[in-house]
Amino acid sequence: MAVPKFYEFLKPFLITLKDGEIHKSKEVQSILAKKMKLTDIDLQEMLPSGKQSVFNNRVAWARTYLDKAGLVETPSRGQYRITDNGKKALTSGDVIDISYLEQFDSFKKFHKVQGKNNNSVAYDGNDTSDAISPMESLDGAFKQVMDALADDLMKEVMKLSSVEFEHLVVQLLLKMGYGDGIDDAGKVTHPTSDGGIDGIIKEDQLGFSYIYIQAKQWSPDRTVSRPELQKFAGALQGEKATKGLFITTASFSSGAKNYADSLHGLTIVLVDGKQMTRLMIKYNLGVSVEHTYEVKRIDSDFFTESL
User: Fold this and answer.
1) Rounded to whole angstroms, how far apart are CA atoms 57 and 52?
2) pTM for this structure?
3) Are 283 and 175 in contact (CB under 8 A)?
């Protein structure tokens, strides 16, 4: 038989985890392949890109959808476990499809993408309506992939130790080109004597200019407030520094943002968790390129001027 659509794996995926134990990715795939009675030929079918099998891709998206709805969780990389809501879904008697997942706010936030003219539209990879254009559908799918990647990336970042997180932040700055070509351009300060400074980046060869870093690995649902910025500003002044970067996995309060904007003779740039993951993706830190697509259009100038 043909490989089922990704949303047809939702309930079977949950059933595979119903014992409440932690199951590895390959184990789940093997069980699902047997339950769906898929042949070796079915499992070898590849996406048009030739980079991944259709089966692995669809199982992975089923897992992502269940994760966004809070029906499964990932306690560690490549391992899955059903949640209480997942168990309730199995005993509810309801059809577990995309419509069922829409009852969960976390899933709705993930599943909705911004359409043309700010009209909110849903993209599920199986939309045959004429509500959105093919390009809008493609853009929606790309945004959904990027949102899922950013969310998964943040989960990995939160598993790091505080020292590992500080090293990650310094690596990100170097990836972005700060300290380019300078020996020992970036370093993490000693945790017992950092004085509120977690890392330092050299901006020029002779050391006339430095960027001082404060890195806060807080829960993404927390907020960095003004007092934290004030303490960082004090640490910068103690170093006679003029440039600071405050980067966090959390978000910033309006008071913190206003304080950073009101400083004179001192610049503090704020980077929150969402911006941090976007920068990591942009500069390929902790991620790698899986597919590259080119979208082309008619060159009107060629047909009107060149022939």
Assistant:
1) 7
2) 0.72
3) yes
